[in-house]
Amino acid sequence: MTPPGSERATRQGLADELADSIHTAVLNGDLPIGSWLRQEALAAQLGVSRGPVREALRKLQEVRVVELIPNRGARVLGPTVRESGDAFLLRAEIEGFAVERAAACISATDLAELSVDIQRQREELPHLRSLPPGDCERGFARSPWHVADVHFHRVIVRASGLAHVHEIVEGLRRYWPCHLAWAPASGPGILEANLAEHEGILAALERRDAATARRLMEAHNRNNGANATKWMQTRYEELGVNSGSRESA
After folding, report:
1. Where is the signal peptide (predicted)?
2. Cα 146–chain centre separation
3. Residues 6+ apart with CB under 8 A from 184
4. Which residue ranges form the domains of the chain, and what is each CATH number?
5. From 102, 116, 166, 209, which residue has the greatest number of CB atoms within 10 Å?
6. Model pTM?
């Protein structure tokens, strides 16, 4: 005999698993902002009934990963413009403190790694600029440029020796879906400016100039935040979504 409530518990567990799977696909960039999710297609793709899929989408709507639109399906959303700006402001403060501390103790090995990251970005720049905007946006999260960019920031946080800072920064990064990696880099001259900012931060670290390193890192993250929020504002307007509340217009 099946214990009372176990069937419901199993269904809820499946819905949770499906919600996690869909959310992961959003964060990985496999489901970009504006993507439509159909219950029937998801159920067939995942080999489950529509019930758990429907429940999974409801769960994702509660945490504002998707919005459910009657007779149309579920549409993938991302952070609001304000949430995105706040995340970069937090990173400006946290990474600014981290690079200030790193300036006093960063090793020659870490400095060499940062130099390699910058060189990889410099080499990748012509290729990125040769791509059509749409192709560049879709592939940016997996590009050597972005990989080097992420590593550059991680090396500095690691070199700071500050406990828990890595977890805090990575938590902010995980909240930022991969398909939005292009947002801070979009627009004419922004990649070039980003590279120059990294070069300035490295130069300050090599001089052990903690104050300048912090100032440049804070400005770097604020610039990224301004570029990202501008890009997201435009994207949400294109989708007809309120950029502050993420409710459909």
Report:
1. none
2. 11
3. 88, 190, 194, 223, 224, 225, 227, 228, 231
4. 6-76 (1.10.10.10), 81-231 (1.20.120.530)
5. 102
6. 0.80
Cα 15 from chain centroid? 25
Look-up of token digits 């080499």: 123
| Distances from the Cα of 53 to the Cα of 18, 42, 57, angstroms | 7, 7, 6
